Amino acid sequence: MKRHNLLSTSIKCALITAAATASNSVLAQDEQATKIERVEVTGSRILREGAIAPAPVTVISGEQLINTGAVNIGEALNNLPALGNTYSMANSGRFIGTAGLNILDLRNMGTDRTLVLVNGKRHVSSSAGSQAVDTNTIPSVWVERVEIITGGASAVYGADAVTGVVNFILKDNIEGMDFSVTRGFADLNSYNNEKATFSYGSNFDNARGNAAFAIEYSGQDSLNALDHPWTSTSFANLRNQAQTEANKDSADFPDKILTPNAGYYAINNAGVYALEDGYTNSFNPDSSARDLYIGNNVDGLSCANCDFFNLGQFEEIQPEFERYNVNFKVNYDVTDDLNVYFDAKYVNSQGESIGQPAFFFFDSDNSIKIDNPYLDPAIKARMQEEGVDSIMVNRMMSDLGRRVENNTRETTRFVTGLKGAVFEDWELDTSLVYGQTDLERENGANMILANYFNALDAVEDTDGNIVCRSAAAQADGCVPVNIMGFGAPSQQAIDYINTVSVGTSTIKQTVVSGSLANGAIFELPAGYVGVAFGAEYRKEESETKEPDNAEGTFFNALGEDKGSFNVREVFFEATMPILTDLPLIQDLVLDTAVRHADYSTIGEATSWKLGLDWTVNDELRVRVTQSEALRAPNISEVFGAASQTFYNVDDPCRAENLGDLSNAATRSANCAALGVASDFNSDYDSASLDGLSSGNRDVKGEESTSTTVGIVYQPMFLENAVLTIDYWEIDLKDAIDTIEAQDILDRCVDSTTGIDNQYCNLITRNASGEISLIQNSVLNVAGQKASGVDFELGYDFDALEGSFKTRLVGTYLIERKDYPFQDDPSSYIEYAGTTGEAKWQTNLSVSYAMDNFYSTVETRFISEVDLYTNVELASNPNPSNQMSYGKYFITDMTVGYSFDNGLGVKVGVDNLFNRKLPYGTRGTGAGSASYDNIGRFGYINLSYSL
């Protein structure tokens, strides 16, 4: 329902798009206008004349989002320069429980700092312990547009909007039927996907009401790295054999050479063991000995053009994924001015992550004793010759099954509310939101370690049968296993060794809110003052239950998180015209907002925003925003239970590490105080060390300051053209983060005040001085700073008997600093210009339409990026021959025709020119997922509207 307000005086208004930036913006002037539509725009609750955004907003239409071969809208959004590829289909399986998630990350400053809204309202999370929204839960068929705002959003929408807001605006009234099916196929591999949508809506009761429902299905196949020619090659960084002591710091003689057809030789699927000739011994399928060829390009345990092991066989560059989405909505005008509405949804998404199997790499427990009856006689004889009573086997347990994680998420959400005009010119919006996500995480091929080691220790009984050595294990059903040779384990042994572990999570969100807004509460000499105010109550709950049978397995022992918090908030916003009709000041408007919150976890917090909107003349507009926000910690950051993890560190108390320092007096004294002997030099830290990671009940909120300064230019000499340029800066203090394990160790022993410090309290050493446990929890120790320039150029024109729409969206990243310890501003990691955070990123779109025909060409550009940060290069200026990924262009194209009878046909090709991945990557990392790892991908879409 829309309501038009009458203004008693004539006004002059620049009518542009919601962002004042979209390419189809037009300048509409009407000196005599007395009837102006007021609409709400992202970044403000105050209804504005036209849609003049008070802060920089990037707008993407719903049609643009689905104009791609990707089957979910999150993939399309991740291609925007302002958004990082932290969670995409290509890399979502990097962590436990995240397979299939598509979570947005504005400015690459963390998903917890990006607030995702649907129609300006919060949405339940899809990731336990956080407030991260999975975009797969949003119905793409009903998306009208997506608005992305940076700066000042926390004061309007809530404290999570540290880096900005992504607001999905859904269509209001749905009339008629829309049906579409899409099927896509890759050119170079077996990957394919499909999508089907159905939507139907109708007015009722003389158009006072509207009801609609929509059903969506989408799915995609998994794609293994070895099944794609771009990703099947195994690479390894091998020592540069041409480097000498004299040239070791020269860029012409880097330390390592990224070498194709290379990898580990000291581990494989059959098993590798060492005798006098080193780790060059493996097994044939019949358990007999097989020599490994390691060639002449060897670096430690890796080699090239040899019998190396390709770990790519365990990497899925695209996961298997399915999604079912059912939506219903109804609204009804209970009076001429008030509309009641109700929305409901159910989403079922299933993501599969297939990872490495259980493995043993230099684990002495994984040894074959000389009396093992599966041992080949020739190998046994050689062991006897060399006086060896056991062999340690490095092995990927692939024939026991790759570890598979199936994540099934069910999301339900209900929204009801009342909105419309009250008290003449006031706009009311009250709502109740309830959402719940239920996650079931099934981990298959999970090795029970006790069963495995019992099965591995096989002997021959008095009757000549091969059995487990332990009588107690025999009584519990132990089945002996032979691991010497790929395929050697029997199915009975596999069934005894493996189990399936199932964990569950439940996430709940309840939001009650109400607001009143008036865009013209009273008139000043320069114009009308607008205000909005309201209150909101929100409760977030999350509980994770881990399976009892996960303890003692190859799977990490995770803590059972359970926690909740509530927050009560009040907010106020005002827009006030200060000056008008002066030289160089056509209009000058002050925007301000403040939001006060009371959290059950951290207490009170206040966010505020001040902005100036200066219209210089009909062509030029300047906008400035300064804001401050406080983000409260999420549930896992406060209530997260201790979970098992592993750290790769160097013990700073080892004698050889002490010897690397120019002045080791402080560290030596502290190591001695910890009970570590001065000659301690155990190499135990060459293997990963046990750790625990948890939340922190005492963690506080993090504070951020944001600044934006920009212009909007619409030249009179070029009709339908608009240029926006906005500088933005975000400074984050008291950032909630964990400390690197190595930093914990170093700060413990480098403290000038001794070992009575918070870092030493996190470390446990055994009687011999070795570290047995490192504990880690989130703390307010870090800081971040990011700044850049967003720019957008749009120009629409008629030519070639049709109409063109052009749009260039880009970001120049000036800095993206991460301060591990904010109390030391001289020490930071600069991510600007590194993988996933290119200095320059642009998207160029050119669309053409003539009658029923339409076509679009889009090209995305990523500038050259460094593979090493400033910190890494400071310690080693020439680590590799590959120091960067070069410039990257990728082009997509669609062509379609809409018939008069409602039938539509569209054909598209993503990565039209088959642009390859950068050399040596598979495109599955947090940064490298910026690059397409599928290749040329064609699809066809058939639609019908009635």
Overview of this structure, please?
The chain is mostly beta strands and 946 residues long. Helix content is 8%, strand content 47%. It is built from twelve helices and 53 strands. It starts with a strand and ends with a strand. The N terminus is likely disordered.
Q: Report the helical percentage.
A: under 10%
Beta-strand portion reads: over 45%
Report the strand count: 53
Poorly predicted regions are 1-39
Please give the largest β-sheet: 22 strands, antiparallel, barrel
The structure class reads: mainly beta
Q: What number is the mean pLDDT?
A: 91
- First-residue to last-residue Cα separation: 23 Å
Write down the Rg: 31 Å
**Helix count, DSSP H or I runs of 4 or more residues:** 12
Shape estimate: globular
Features:
single chain; 946 residues; mainly beta; 22-stranded antiparallel beta barrel; disordered N terminus
Topology of helices and strands:
Elements: E1 4-6, E2 35-39, E3 48-49, E4 57-61, H1 62-65, H2 73-77, E5 114-118, E6 121-122, E7 143-149, H3 153-157, E8 164-170, E9 176-186, E10 192-204, E11 209-220, E12 223-224, E13 235-239, E14 256-260, E15 262-264, E16 272-275, E17 278-283, E18 289-291, E19 298-299, E20 302-304, E21 316-318, E22 320-333, E23 338-354, E24 359-360, E25 367-369, H4 377-385, E26 390-392, E27 395-396, E28 404-422, E29 426-447, H5 449-456, E30 458-460, E31 466-468, H6 471-475, H7 491-497, E32 498-524, E33 527-545, E34 562-582, E35 585-599, E36 603-615, E37 620-631, H8 635-639, E38 643-647, H9 655-658, H10 665-673, E39 689-694, E40 702-713, E41 721-737, H11 741-749, E42 763-765, E43 771-777, E44 779-799, E45 802-819, E46 829-830, E47 840-850, E48 853-862, E49 865-866, H12 870-875, E50 884-885, E51 888-898, E52 903-910, E53 937-945
Parallel strand pairs: 5-8, 39-43
Antiparallel strand pairs: 1-2, 2-3, 4-7, 5-6, 7-8, 9-10, 9-53, 10-11, 11-22, 12-21, 13-14, 15-20, 16-17, 17-18, 19-20, 22-23, 23-28, 24-27, 25-26, 28-29, 29-32, 30-31, 32-33, 33-34, 34-35, 35-36, 36-37, 37-40, 38-39, 40-41, 41-44, 42-43, 44-45, 45-46, 45-47, 47-48, 48-51, 49-50, 51-52, 52-53
